TrEMBL record:
SUPFAM superfamilies: HAD-like. It holds the Pfam family Hydrolase. The keyword Hydrolase applies. The keyword Transmembrane does not apply. This is HAD family hydrolase.
Length: 224
């Protein structure tokens, strides 16, 4: 059976985490809400509706959600043309693809954001499938998007690795029964990722690339 390398995108392959924090902070401020940036940072990786609920609580005026999400989309859109891939991200995708892994992106980003990040990565020829927010009913930390991505790739759980930068990524991987690998490039502490289920942690894609032969990817290759 094929081996599937599932990747979160924001903060894992592209340097976008803190841009999202700023955009959400301003979108919420425009709606009359002062939310500390540290709280928003912890929420990055959730889908828009879940992020707003996380920031404002379930008792909020949900009639504001659509306007807040639209404001975030507009604010983040100002950076689309300047988004950058993290160091080693493109090379890591190439290396895994050359080793026979199917590359699948798993993201809660909307179409415009995803298109901008794909341009920054410049690796469309390596990507076999993308599982986006529109493909599933529930976003991370629910396992739906990872399960959809794995099933589309045709890979067994024990032959699937998901790499992400947030606790939501690690929780989703654990619930989906696949190997969870964390990176620190999204700014979440190592201990938080470990507590959420990360089985290996690397500084960023470049760090994983240099240590690929001692990683879970190589161990699964040798075992198959």
């Amino acid at each position: 059976m094929p081996r599937a390398a599932l990747f979160d995108v924001d903060g894992t392959l592209t340097d976008t985490t803190y841009l999202h924090v700023t955009a959400w902070w301003e979108a919420l401020r425009q709606a009359g809400h002062e939310v500390p940036t540290v709280a928003l940072h912890r929420a990055i990786g959730l889908g828009g509706h879940d992020l707003i609920a996380h920031a404002l609580g379930e008792g909020r005026d949900q009639d504001q959600d659509e306007a807040i999400s639209a404001a975030h989309k507009t604010l983040f859109g100002a950076w689309h043309e300047r988004l950058a891939a993290l160091e080693g991200a493109r090379e890591l995708l190439h290396a895994l693809h050359d080793r026979g892994w199917l590359i699948v992106l798993v993201t809660s980003a909307g179409p415009g954001e995803l298109a901008a990040m794909r341009r920054a990565l410049d690796a469309d020829d390596l990507i076999s499938h993308i599982s986006s927010a529109s493909d599933v009913a529930r976003g991370k930390p629910a396992p739906d998007s990872l399960e959809q991505a794995r099933e589309t790739a045709g890979a067994a759980r024990e032959q699937t690795v998901f790499i992400g930068d947030s606790v939501w990524d690690m929780e989703a991987a654990s619930r989906a029964g696949v190997t969870a690998v964390g990176v620190l490039s999204g700014g979440i502490p190592r201990a938080d990722l470990e507590d959420a289920g990360a089985q290996e942690i690397y500084q960023d894609p470049a760090d994983l690339l240099t240590r690929l032969d001692e990683s879970v990817y190589a161990r699964l290759e040798r075992a198959s």
